Amino acid sequence: MRDKRLAVAHTAQVNSVTIGSGLLIGDVNQLNPRSRAIAVQREGPHTIEDHVSFTTYPIFQREPSPMLPPLTISSSFHHVDHEICVDSMFILGASTASAIQIGGIDHIDAHARVKHIRILSDEQ
């Protein structure tokens, strides 16, 4: 990490961290969170035997788009204070290949694929 600064948080209240996500405290070199999900909303009664498979949907077999090359921008920074201080944080939540981080990170490559299906009662 270039020109590191120290992140200081007195308190952090986080309600939930779910589905391939994380709460990270400290510096991280590389983070690659991944998540894939099929969300089915069905109007009316349903049974637990109603299974769906990732192989049914092409979105889960496709290769992700290649990363763009990093931009090179000439810049310089002068930090009067080398600490970033926060008294308190309240975070409702992080979900689906995401991260809440108190600290620094060099590289992050997050992938989330969600197939959302809504089945109305007149379609059944």
From TrEMBL:
InterPro entries: Spore_germ_GerPE. It holds the Pfam family GerPE. This is Spore germination protein GerPE. It comes from Halobacillus naozhouensis.
